[in-house]
Amino acid sequence: GGGNTSAEAEERAGSRTAMRLLWWAAVLVLVTAASQPVEAFKFDFLHGVASGDPLSDSIVLWTRITHRFEPETTQVRWVVLDSEGAEVASAVELAAASSDYTVKVIVDGLLPATEYKYYFEAVDGDGGSRSPTGNFRTLPDPSAHVERAKFAVFSCSNWGWGHFNAYDAAYAYDSAYDFWIHLGDYYYEYGPETYPSRAEAVRARGLEPPHEAVSLEDYRLRHATYRLDPDLQRLSASAALVAIWDDHEVADNQFSTGAHNHDPETEGNFTARRDSAIRAYHEWLPTRSGKIGDEDYVGDRYFRELKIGNLASMFVLETRMLNRTNPDELGDLMGGTASMLAAAAVEDVRNLPEEVEKSLVERRDFLEGYRRGENKTLLSWEELRWIERQTRRSAESGVTWQLFAQQIVMADIAFADLDRAADLVDASRAAGWREQIDNATCSNGARAVSFSPAPFMKENFMKEVDLSARDCLSMRAGWLHGKLKIPYNLDMWAGYLAERERFYEATARATRNMVVYSGDSHNSWASNLRDKDGNIIAAEVAGTSVSSAGIETFVPFLSADLMSAGFLAANPDLLYANTEKRGFFVVDLTHETHRATYVSVDQVETRDYKAFCEARLEYDSVGVGQRREKGMRLLSGEHCDFGGPREGPADRKEAGVGSQYWVAAPFVITSAILIMLVPGLVLWKRRSARKRERYIAMMEMSLEEQQEL
Asked: What angle do CA 498, 499, 503 make, to 5 degrees?
């Protein structure tokens, strides 16, 4: 008995020594955690701040607060300051898990045409955390005389395709905008394998969730990922945002009852998906998802008007969710023509078999009838009536300009007529272009130069490469579409011609000085718009993408100057086309002139970019009672170049944040607790086992042996 007691004593002593070592290890872990910056344990504003939907007396302020432990609710204070730094308004709001810890507040009672600053700060916990400071400007009083307005316009920002250099370039170009506009595809729903693929992607890592966004949590996480981008944060803090969605905020080529990129068999009910996307959109953007006066803009009914004094009325239209009919009923137009050529084994597009030529003409005529269908719609009847009523009021009240911010290109753009473009230039240039055309359509064999500057194609940039059979068919189909004047894309107003006429009729009172802004196409187009009688009734400025790939990626074997010339040759009312650059445009508006300047960035592969003014277009106003004789005109490019190497990480993730939901501190502390608790639990189990063994041994002893012990 005495020997066993000695052994147990030694074991207990060893256990105590082990416990001391483990406790010291736990203390070391906690000391390491404590050495972290104090800010790492506080509430933080990782996603920056934003303001939006300005009125003459009101603004929407937005932020999201982040904490490692994510309480059910937490208090956040917002403060609005005047230009001198004096506080003019403040209050405390709740950030709740039910709204993904976003904070959105409508501040009323502000002065018109006034510069303000604002910030947020944490109230709960250890306090002390404060957001970046943002700036906004209220709109002028609706009845005021306003001399000038200036704003930048963007569309189509895709995380994977590249960095959002256009946002930074806009800030560098002019940091004093009245507001900025995003016309949709503010983010994309695709997973990391789709548009772009991993092989095509510039930012192949960091996209969350790592799959297609379908649920509410998916869309929230996708917003959170995009809001980590420093260039988006900087622009968002500099001026108020006026935003409207396009299709990718829900799913590619969305319409009122479904989407091209939605499979009910695997992704569930489309309405539930759309409602989740709309909810996340309103949670994560500074939108007026409540009332504006007597008008209710909750949910998908988000068309609205901004009044810039007597200078302009801006109408923000919704063309995707409420009443759009399916844009994909006919599938891929170019692909259909390519299949027809493949079936007939066509190799020379300039010498088509008679039956193929007849089939192509019939196909074109069918498309003409289809796109004029009365049952093809983009706008709801409610929205059309609202447009008619509000544009009439605007024009009759003496407002000079009626501006329409909406998603898709309104001009009727046919595909590039390449041969006609070559016919219209000097002989030396024409020879090079005709060689390009012959090479691209595989008339000189299946080899051609790759002109695309896209990052994933840079290895072959300006090099001769082999064309696949699919490349040859696709390029031949494009050449024929240009010859036959087949529309470039039916997912534009060109696919809804009867609806466009209804829109023109609704805006008839405002067609004296009307301008349309468009996005979606990933390329730049500037056009004069005509009614069915051939009268110029508006100008359209359609912008390129922030980062999403354009024509240059699927027509890589023709140079950008040839493609642009081909589109201009095929479309007499098209004044400007740029088929390879990423960027934005800036509008400088006076009572006399609407001036639009296209600004492009030279690349999106890194954040070290250069920016250039590509073109400037002017559209003069027409006085009351005067007939418009002249349309928009293209001026020589305004010279500007700026931008350059930028220091710092591309986003907060690369800076070591790791995630918008912090996990480092809980991991460290939990590890320390486990180090302390787990060994104790193990020792407790060992001691319990020893006691049980001694009890069993004692039960087996005789009474005398027990008494002796």
From this structure: 120
Query: pLDDT per residue over 289-298, tens digit each?
Result: 864 445 544 5
CA distance 187 to 225: 10
Q: Is the preceding omega at residue 209 within 30 degrees of 0, hence cis?
A: yes
Amino acid 126: pLDDT: 64
Query: What pLDDT score was predicted for residue 149?
Result: 98
| 32, 218 Cβ separation under 8 angstroms | no
Distance of CA 212 to the CA centre of its chain: 15
Asked if omega into 196 is within 30° of 0 (cis), the reply is yes
The whole-number pLDDT of residue 703 equals: 37
**Beta carbons of 341 and 479 less than 8 angstroms apart:** no
How many C-beta neighbours within 10 Å does residue 428 have?
Answer: 7
Give 200-258 as a DSSP string.
T-SS-S--SSSS---SHHHHHHHHHHHTT-HHHHHHHHHS-EEE---STTTSTTEETTE
d(CA 156, CA 409): 13
CA distance 708 to 692: 20
Instruction: Note whether 67 and 662 are within 8 A (CB).
Output: yes
- Return d(Cα 709, Cα 693) in angstroms, integer: 16
E strands of 459-573, at which residues?
A: 464-466, 514-518, 524-530, 536-542
Tokens 């993408």 belong to residue: 545
Low-confidence ranges of the chain (pLDDT < 50): 1-4, 29-41, 291-293, 296-297, 647-676, 678-685, 688, 691-692, 694-709
CA 340 to chain centre: 36
Distance separating alpha carbons of residues 228 and 216, to the nearest angstrom: 19
Instruction: Report the 10 Å Cβ neighbour count for 164.
Output: 28
CA distance 189 to 219: 8
The CA-atom distances, in angstroms, between 106 and each of 120, 290, 412 are 14, 9, 40
- Enter the pTM of the model: 0.86
